[in-house]
Amino acid sequence: MEVYLDNNATTKVDPEVFKAMEPFFCDIYGNPNSLHKFGAGTHKKMVEALDYLYSGINAADEDDIVITGNATESNNTVIKGIWVDKILNGNKNHIITSEVEHPSITAVCKFLETQGVSVTYLPVNEEGILEAQQVADYIKEDTALVTIMWANNETGKLFPIKEIGQICKDAGVPFHTDATQAIGKVPVDVQACNVNYLSFSAHKFHGPKGVGGLYIQKGFEVTPLLHGGEQMGGHRAGTVDVASMIGMGVAMKLATSEMALAYENNHVRKLRDKLENAILEIPETIVIGGKENRTPNTTLISIRGVEGESMLWDMNQKTIGASTGSACASEDLEANPVMNAFGSDSELAHTGVRFSLSRFNTEAEIDYAIDVIKGAIARLRSISSSYAYTPKNHVSEL
C-alpha cells in the first residue's frame, strides 16, 4: 500500500481540477489579452476562475487578486515592493515578522537587512503561540509592514490573524499574511481579518504546481516584482498560464466550500488524531507545539532516540511519504529553526517527523501507516547507540 502523508509539501491534483484544465492546452488556447475570438474564449474562463478565487478568500470586488507563479513569488512581491515604496522612496525602515515564517519570508527579510532595513523577528513560545500583543508592542512610527503567516507549515499552528489585522489597521501599518497552509483547511476571510495582502499557492489545496496568487486590498498598491506588459492590471507582467489559473480557480472552489471545510475539520482531523494518538502511545514521543489551535491535517511529532531522516528512510521503504523536521543543510545536521524556536532541546530538534494529511487519505491507509511507524521506531531505537528509555521522560506534548 502507498500512503502519502506529506500534503503540506504538495498535494495531488484533484481529478475534477485536472479535467477543468485539459481544454486549455489544445482546444481553448488563445492569449487572453488578444481581441479575437480565440482570446475572448480564454478570457471568459479566466474571469470565472478569478470569481472562484475572490469567493474563496472573501475578497471584495474592488480588490485585486494577482496570478503569480507561487506563494514564494507573492511573498517576494509584497516585501520587496514595500521596500521600494515605503523604505527606498519613503520614510519607513522597519518590518515585523515572526521567527517561524516560511523561508520565502525570512530569506527576503534577511536580504533586506543587508540593505539597511531593520527587521523584528517575533518569537513564539514552547506551544508555538504568537500573541497579537507582541505585534502591537513592536510597531513603531517607521514600521513599513507586518508579515505574519496564517498557519505554520510544519506544526499547523494557527496565528491570531484577525487580532493582528485589527492592530495593524488601528496603527495604519500594512498587514500581509502568507495563507499558503491555511486555505482549504480553515476558513480564510480577508475582509473580516483586515488583511491588506495575502499569498497562496494552488498546489497546497489540490491545484496544479507553478501557479499562485497575491491578494491586494484596494488602496494598498505595491511596486511589481516583474515589469513589462500590462497583464494583471500592471501588477505582474507576463502572459498568464491560463490552464493553471483555471485549475487554481476550480481547486479553490472545491477546497473552500462549506462541505469541504467541514470534511477537513471532521474526517481529516479524525484520521490525523488517530495517527497521532497511536504514535503517542509509544514512550518518549511528543507533539511539538501541543495539540491545540492547529490546522486539522497536520502533526509534527518528535520521537526521542530516532533521527527524523532515519525514520523517513524506514517509512519510504514501506511506501509511506512524510517529511522531516530536521533540515540537512550541512554535514552537521543543522537543526530546524522552527523546532528551535519552539524550545526543543538539541537532541529533539533533529527528531521531528511531520505528517500532513488530505481529504484523499483513507482510514485503511492510516492503519497501515501506524503499523509501519511503530515497527520503524522499535527497529531504529534498538540499533541506537545513544537511546535508553527512561519512563520519567514519557510525555505527550511539548
From TrEMBL:
Protein known as: cysteine desulfurase
Reactions it catalyzes: (sulfur carrier)-H + L-cysteine = (sulfur carrier)-SH + L-alanine
Function: Catalyzes the removal of elemental sulfur atoms from cysteine to produce alanine. Seems to participate in the biosynthesis of the nitrogenase metalloclusters by providing the inorganic sulfur required for the Fe-S core formation.
UniProt cofactor(s): pyridoxal 5'-phosphate
The organism of origin for this protein: Halarcobacter mediterraneus
Gene Ontology biological process: cysteine metabolic process
NCBIfam families referenced in this protein's UniProt entry, alphabetically: nifS_epsilon
Boundaries of every Aminotransferase class V domain copy: 3-368
UniProt keyword Transferase, yes or no: yes
EC assignment: 2.8.1.7
Keyword Transferase assigned: yes
Molecular-function annotations in GO: 2 iron, 2 sulfur cluster binding; cysteine desulfurase activity; metal ion binding
